[in-house]
């Protein structure tokens, strides 16, 4: 059974500081996704990582994938309030997504 | 990007009744769609894969007779929750890749089901 583990599950960030969310998974996969979910809303796609060593950046967010270590990271640079949300990683096996538990991020002043 | 819609966005039904949720791909054809369920404060769990023109495939532990899936056209999949009970109250989200070989999936806005 595929396991996808995210940590931390809760992250209180101070504005302006940097943080990292980790996503470990238990099976071989070259495809990993990061999503953002705001309360009461569906998922917003952040990054699609399709190969070992993939790195993608958008604004204050940067995601990377190490398929050998079965690890992806989501790095947040200089956190701002607008980044408060729940972040999910998901691993693709045969186009079916298995999600991590989610990391609830709260950014405080 | 591709757009997936869901209808209704919210529905309240009484225990024992059935409710249908629609998932539509608006600007692409989807031979495959996926149905997920999300309980409050939890992650998304895949329920089933909806295949156009053939039977849906259900994940382990999901009752196929309770959650009926019909993928009658290349742009529409429906999920019917039969004989709904309060424990079926959840956020149901569908997704679809915009082409058979695409790795990117597009998520619908979700349907909040409350069973009283």
User: What gap, in angstroms, lies between the N and C termini of chain B?
Assistant: 37 Å
Q: What is the CA-CA span between the terminal residues of chain A? A: 41 Å
Average pLDDT over all residues of chain B:
95
Question: What is the count of DSSP helices of chain B, taking H or I runs of 4+ residues?
Answer: 0
Rg of chain A (C-alpha, Å) = 13 Å
Q: Can you write the helix and strand succession of chain B as a string?
A: EEEEEEEEEEE
Q: What portion of the residues of chain A fall into strands of 2 or more residues?
A: over 45%
> Helix coverage percent of residues of chain B?
under 10%
Q: Find the biggest chain interface.
A: A-B, 21 and 22 residues
Portion of residues in beta strands of chain B equals: over 45%
List keywords for this structure.
heterodimer; A: 109 residues; mainly beta; six-stranded mixed sheet; five-stranded antiparallel sheet; 11 strands; 0% helix; 59% strand; B: 116 residues; seven-stranded mixed sheet; four-stranded antiparallel sheet; 53% strand
Give an overview in words.
The complex is a heterodimer of chains A (109) and B (116). Chain A is mainly β and 109 residues long. In chain A, 0% of the residues lie in helices and 59% in strands. Chain A has strands spanning 4-7, 10-14, 19-25, 32-37, 43-49, 55-58, 61-66, 71-76, 85-93, 96-99, 103-108. In chain A, the strands form 2 sheets. In chain A, strands 2, 4, 5, 9, 10 and 11 form a 6-stranded mixed beta sheet that branches. Chain A starts with a strand and ends with a strand. The relative contact order of chain A is 0.34. The mean pLDDT of chain A is 95. By secondary structure, chain B is an all-beta fold. Chain B is 0% helix and 53% strand. Chain B is built from no helices and 11 strands. Chain B is globular, with a radius of gyration of 13 Å. Chain B starts with a strand and ends with a strand. The model of chain B has no long low-confidence stretch (mean pLDDT 95). The chains are: A mainly beta (109), B mainly beta (116). Chain A binds chain B through residues 31, 33, 35, 40-43, 45, 48, 50, 88, 90, 92, 95-102, and chain B through 1, 32, 34, 36, 42-46, 49, 93, 95, 97, 103-110, 112.
